[in-house]
Write a structure and sequence with these properties.
With about 130 residues, this protein is mainly α. It has 6 helices and 2 strands. The protein has helices at about 5-10, 15, 20-30, 35, 40-60, 100-115; strands at about 70-75, 80. β1 (about 70-75) and β2 (about 80) form a beta hairpin.
Length: about 130
């Protein structure tokens, strides 16, 4: 099984050198259910940590961190608009970064696979 650091090194290399990485990983681990994610637990922790680190870095840089589908484009004087979080079906602030969207996809996949097996308790349903 890959470690959180190995996953981050492969998917979010720019975040690995962040001095607050270990704090974000610890917080992500506290907020992520190992029961819900099972063998995908370290991936979920890595995605949540990358999400929160990206939000922090965007706030420090003063960027909005626009994500979502392109809703309009203009060629002269180049203008691009993104759909933002409201155009993506996510819980909480997960739609604000690409890592949050990936985590939401993982959550949705866990819920779907549990529903197919007939399990009525969905431990991932409350993940945000």
């Amino acid at each position: 099984m890959l470690s959180v650091l190995q996953i981050l090194s492969a998917t979010a290399l720019q975040l690995v050198s962040d001095p607050e990485l270990s704090v974000h990983v610890q917080l992500a681990a506290q907020r992520t259910s190992s029961t819900c994610f099972g063998e995908n637990y370290t991936l979920a922790v890595a995605l949540r940590a990358a999400h929160t680190l990206t939000l922090k870095n965007e706030a420090v840089a003063g960027n909005s961190g626009a994500v979502g589908p392109v809703t309009s484009m203009k060629e002269g004087d180049l203008s691009i608009s993104f759909g933002g979080a409201s155009s993506i079906s996510v819980k909480g602030d997960l739609g604000t970064t690409k890592y949050g969207i990936q985590l939401q996809d993982l959550i949705d996949g866990q819920i779907s696979s549990m529903s197919v097996t007939g399990d009525v308790s969905l431990p991932c349903d409350n993940e945000v």
